[in-house]
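Hello,

Our lab assistant flagged a job as stuck in the queue for most of the afternoon. It eventually completed. Since we weren't sure the result was trustworthy after the delay, we are filing this so someone can double-check. Below is the sequence as submitted and the structure that was eventually returned. Let us know if re-running is recommended.
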Amino acid sequence: MVTYFKSQKDLAVALIQLIDDYWNYELSEDNLINQINELSSKNKEKLFIDGQYSSVLKQRLGKRRIELLNKVLTNRG
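-- returned structure --
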């Protein structure tokens, strides 16, 4: 799996695929958490702008995926 993306759009597509695989029971919860944490740490500048999710990510991921992303990222430490 690629872990560093050159655009916010590419990062959003990867996160959508990851979360949808989890919701379709194709990915375990532990794998989801590990992969989201890895993507987040390597792509912080694309994921967050001024402490908020970038508008591209918000629009592409949608409310439910952002909620799941929030839960994973706030419980990682």
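-- support follow-up --
The delay was a queue issue, not a problem with the job. The result is valid. Strands lie at 48-49, 52-53. The chain is about 70% helix and 5% strand.
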